[in-house]
Amino acid sequence: MPHIEEGVFRSKLIDRQNRGTAMRRLYAASFGVAILALVLLVLTIVNEAFGYVALVYKVEPETISDRPLAELTEPELVALLVEKAPGQLPKMVSDALSPMDLQTFARAPLGQSLADKQVPAEHADKAPADIPTGERAAVMGQILSGNLTQEQILELIEAAILQPTVSESWPLFEGLFNRGAIEERLVELFPDEITRPELRFKSWLRLEMLTKPMDSNPLVSGVRTALLGTVYLLIIVVLTAFPVGIAAAIYLEEYADPNKWYNRIIETNIRNLAGVPSIIYGLLGLQLLVRFMGDPATGGLGITSGQAFGIIDGTGRNIITAGLTLALLVLPVVIINAQEAIRAVPPSYRDASYGLGATKWQTIWRTVLPSALPGILTGIILSLSRAVGETAPLVVVGASTFIVQDPGLFTRFTALPIQIYTWTSRPQAGFRELAAAGIIVLLVLLIAINTIAFVLRNQARRRLQV
Amino acid sequence: MEQTMEGTSYSTERSRLLSQALGKHAARAGIGKRPRPNERLIVVLLFAAGVLSIFTTAFIVLFLGTEAVSFFQSRAWIYAKMLVVDQAAAPVSLRGDAEGALNSTGTSLLLDLGDLSRVPFMPGALIQIGDEIMRVAERRERSVIVERGYLDTQPQPHPPGAPILTLKEDSVRTVEAIKEEDTRIVLPENAAGVFAVGDIIHLETETMRIAAIEGDTLVVERGLENTLRRAYPANAVVQVERRPTLLAYLTGTRWQPQTGDFGVLPLVQSTFMTSFIAILTALPVGLAAAIYLSEYATQRVRAFLNPLLEILVGVPTVVYGFFALQFVTIGVLRPLFGVDIYNTLSAGLVVGIMIVPTIASMSLDAMGSVPRGLREASYGLGATKLETIARVVLPAALSGIVAAVILGISRAVGETMIVAIAAGAGPNWTFPPNFTVGAETMTGHIARISGGDLSYQSVDYTSIFSIGLTLFIITFLLTQISTYITRRFRELYE
C-alpha cells in the first residue's frame, strides 16, 4: 500500500491494536458477568438463610419465671414444665429419649423403654400408663432432668409453653447494615414497649433440619421427609436409568449397524429426546405411570400404586412414579455420555482383546467397559445432578407439598426442590428464609454427589493406568 | 442381527483353530471351557434398552396427542349472559341546557350528575340513551367520552336532559315454568339474541338443542345425550355450551378453559417474552465467553473458566427461580423501576443466565471447527487478532452460532421453575407486551394447574396436555432447525 503514508499507517495500527485490547477485555468481562451472577446468587441465599427475627410468644417468658430462663437450673426448668404442661411430658420423654413410638412407650416398663438412660430405680418396672395420673408428670420430669442438658430442656419449654412464632423477619445484610430502620419498623409494629419483641439473630439453617419433619411453623420445620424423598428418587434413578442407559450405549456403539434404518432411528430419537423440556416428561409420567399404571380407583392397573402387589392404600402419585419419570428424563443424557465414553476407547484395545482370543462380549465386558468407566461415571454425575435439582416433572406427577410422615414406596411424597418451591411461594414471614436454608441443604447434597463421583472417576482412571 | 451371526460362526471357527493350534494344551489352558454367556440374548437385551427410547417418544406423542384431541372435544358450560338495565345504578342524565344535546356523531357526553360527586361509569362500561347503546372509553370530571352505536344499535341524536341508563351483564333466566313435555322456553325481552339455532344449552343437567328461535322464545329438542327430561320452575338459569376450536385456541387472547375462553396466545406470548429477554442476555455474554475461550484464553485460564460454566449448568433451576424473585426482582428491579413483584423481565434475565453455558459451549464448538488456515491467511494479510475474529472467524462460524441461539431459545421456552416462581401466576395478555407485569408462561401454567389432584376428566387436565403439545411442537421445531443448521455448517469445512 504505497499511497498510505508511514505515519498514518502507524497511528491507525495503534488504533487497531488498542481496539483489539479493549475488545479482548470486554470478552474477558463476560466471565466477570458469570462470576458476578454466581457470587450474587450465593450472597442472596446466605442473606436469606441467616437473618434477624422478631419473635412473638404465645406465653411471654417473663410471665412464667422471675429470672431469665437461661439462668435456671435443670430441676427448676423441669418444675416449670411439670406445672405448665403436665400432659405433654410423657410424649417429650418418648420423643427425646426412647426409640419407641408413644403408644408402645406408654405400655412398656420404663426400665425397658429407657434401657440405657437414667431412670429412678423405684419406677424402673412400671410403664408410664401404670403410674397414677397425679404423679406421672413429676416422674417424667425427674427422668428429663436426669438425662437432658439445660439447653435441651430450654428447647422443650420453648416448644411446649412459650410457642414462639415469627412476627417479622429481616435478611442478614439488612440486619447488619441497616439496623436503625429495623428498630424503627419494630417500634411502628409494636408501639407498646413492654410487649415489643426483641430483635434476635436467627440461623435458619440448623442441623436439626435434617432430622425434623416438616412443620407449619417455620421456626421448627425441617427437611427430613423431603431429603428422604430426594434420596429415594436418586436410588430409583440409579437402579433403573443407569443399567438401561449403559446397555443402550453399548448396543449403539458396539453392535448396531449404523446403516440399518432402525438403528438410525434410535440414534436420532435419543438426540431429540435430550432436547424435550422436562415438564413434558412430567406429563408423560402423569398419564402413563400415574394414571394408566396407577390407582385402580381411577381406572389404572395398580402396578405403580401397589394394588397389584396387595398394598391397599397406595396412591399413584408416589416415589416410584416420580423416580421412573426422572429416570426416563435422564436416560438420553446417560446414553449420549456413555456412548461418547465408549467411542473414546482406542480400537487397539479391542483388537488386542480379540487377538487374545476373547469373544465380542468378553471384549466389551472386560476391556471396553473398564476403559470407558471414567467417562461413563462423568455422564452419571451430570445426570444425577440433574435428577436431584429437577422440579418441574415432580410437580406435574403430583409431589405433595406438605408431608410429615417418612415416605414409603407407595405413599405420597415430597422432595427437596419441591419444598424449596413451595416455601418460596408462601407469603408468611419465615418461609422464604426456610427456602434459602433448604437451598443450602440441596447445594451441599449436589456438591457431595459431585465429589463422590469425582473421587470414583479418579480411582477408576488410576486403576486403568496401572 | 448379522453381527451376532458372525459372532457365532466366529466362535465355532475360533474353537476349531484353538484346538488345532494348542492341541490338548487348549483344554489345560481352560480357554475353550470357560462358560460363555449366550451372546445372542445379550444383544437382544441391549437392543431392547435402545428401543425403550423409541417407546418414550411414542408415548409422549401419543399421550399429548390423544389428550389434546379430547381437549378439543371437551365442553365448558357457561351462564348465558344478556345485558339488562342496572336498576340499582344512580340516576344520571345528559345536561339540561342546550350544550347537553347530542347529535348523532358527537362522542363527548356532558353529564348532569345529580347528587353524585363523580362520574359513575368506568371505562369499558356500557350505557344506553334511548335505543342506542354506547361504550364508555374515557372518564372525565363531569363528562365521558364514548364509542357510539355499540352492539348493532344506530347512532341517533339525543335531546338535552335525556336519562342515561347503566347496563350490566346478567344471567339469562327463563320467564315461565317449563313442564316436562314443553319444547318452548320463553326468555326475557332481547335475551334470545344471545343464542343461535343449533346451540346446545343446559337447564340444570338436561341437555337441549335449539331447533328454532321465535321472537323471545326458544324452540328446543329436549333430553338429548340421554339426559333426563324434567320440569323446571320459572327463573331457571340457562347455560350454554362452549367448545374450543382450533381457531379460537390459536387466536384467542384469553385463557380460562373452565369458563369458555380457550385462547392460548397469552401463555405463548409470555413464553416468548421471557425467552426474548433471556436470549438478549445470554447471547452477548455467551458469545463473548466463547470468543474469549476459543481465541484468547491460555490452557491454564481455560482450566479455570470451563468449570465456572459447568457450575452455572449445575445450579438447579428452582434455585435460579429463588434468585430471580429474591434478588433480581425484590433486590434490584423493584427499587429501580417499580416493577410488579412477579414480572417477565426478571424471569427472562435469570433464564438468560441459565442458558449462557449452552450458547457458549455450542459457539465454542463452531469457532473451534473454523480451519486454522483461514485465521493464518487473515494474519498474513496484516489483520489484527480482533479483525481476524470479527471478519473471518465469526462469519465462518455464523451458522453454528445461529444454531446455538436457536437451541438456547428452545431451552428458554421449555424452562419451567424460574418462570413458575418469578414470572407470575395467571395468564395475562398485554399488547404491546409489558415486561414489568406478571404473566404466566405455558410451562408455568402447566406446573401451577397440575400441582394437586387433578381429575382426569376435567377440562384442566386435558388442557395442560394441549398446552404441552403446543410446547412440544415449538421446542421440537427449534431443535430440528438448530440440528439442521449445525449439520449444514459442518459439511462446509469437511
Query: What is the share of helical residues of chain B?
Result: 40-55%
Any idea of the CATH topology of the largest domain in chain A? Answer: MetI-like fold
The portion of residues forming beta strands of chain A comes to under 5%
Give the H and E element order of chain A.
HEHHHHHHHEHHEHHHHHHHHH
How many helices of chain B? The count is 13
Task: Give an overview in words.
The complex is a heterodimer of chains A (466) and B (494). By secondary structure, chain A is mostly helical. Chain A is 64% helix and 5% strand. In chain A, strands 2-1-3 form a three-stranded antiparallel beta sheet. Chain A is globular and about 95 Å long. Chain A starts with 5 loop residues before the first helix and ends with a helix. By secondary structure, chain B is α+β, with helices and mostly antiparallel strands. In chain B, a hairpin with a 2-residue loop joins strand 10 and strand 11 (206-214). The longest helix of chain B has 35 residues, at 39-73. The two termini of chain B are 32 Å apart.
Keywords:
heterodimer, A: about 475 residues, mainly alpha, 19 helices, 3 strands, B: about 500 residues, alpha+beta, MetI-like fold, 6-stranded antiparallel β-barrel, flat
Provide a quick synopsis of the model:
The complex is a heterodimer of chains A (about 475) and B (about 500). Chain A is mainly alpha-helical. Chain A has 19 helices and 3 strands.
Topology:
The complex is a heterodimer of chains A (466) and B (494).
Chain A: H1 6-49, E1 50-57, H2 61-64, H3 74-84, H4 89-97, H5 102-107, H6 110-113, H7 133-147, H8 150-162, E2 164-171, H9 172-177, H10 179-189, E3 199-203, H11 224-255, H12 261-273, H13 278-292, H14 319-343, H15 347-355, H16 360-389, H17 392-397, H18 416-424, H19 431-465
Antiparallel strand pairs in A: 1-2, 1-3
Helix pairs in contact in A: 1-19, 3-7, 3-8, 4-7, 11-14, 11-16, 11-18, 13-14, 14-16, 15-16, 16-19, 18-19
Chain B: H1 2-22, H2 24-29, H3 39-73, E1 76-79, E2 81-85, E3 92-94, E4 108-112, E5 126-129, E6 132-139, E7 143-150, E8 163-171, E9 184-186, E10 200-203, E11 206-214, E12 217-224, E13 238-242, H4 246-251, E14 255-256, E15 261-262, H5 265-296, H6 299-314, H7 317-337, H8 344-368, H9 372-380, H10 385-414, H11 417-422, H12 442-450, H13 459-493
Antiparallel strand pairs in B: 1-13, 2-8, 3-4, 3-8, 4-7, 5-6, 5-8, 6-7, 9-12, 10-11, 10-13, 11-12, 14-15
